[in-house]
Write a structure and sequence with these properties.
The protein has one domain (2-67). 54% of the residues lie in helices and 0% in strands. The chain has 3 helices and no strands. Helix 1 packs antiparallel against helix 2. It is globular, with a radius of gyration of 13 Å.
Length: 80
């Protein structure tokens, strides 16, 4: 349960910072992408090979992800 809470906390931070300042959200995403593999290694014993995220298209354009040099792969079908 702690992992899910931490994950939703990251999502909440990204959404808040998206509105606060020029390049702030992309800087946070880039920093998270740099630091997360080491933290993950310490906690779980292996490094992730990729990071994945989803953009709610009706509300957002994914601009901060583009600015943080994340690569768009494809639109998903979604579920639920």
């Amino acid at each position: 349960m702690r992992q899910k809470a931490q994950s939703s906390l990251w999502n909440e931070h990204i959404q808040r910072y998206h509105y606060l300042g020029h390049n702030l959200a992309s800087m946070i995403l880039a920093q998270a992408a740099r630091t997360l593999p080491n933290h993950w290694q310490e906690v779980y014993g292996y490094r992730p090979v990729l990071l994945e995220t989803f953009v709610e298209k009706p509300r957002f354009r994914g601009t901060c992800y583009k600015a943080a040099t994340w690569v768009y792969l494809e639109k998903t079908q979604g579920c639920g």
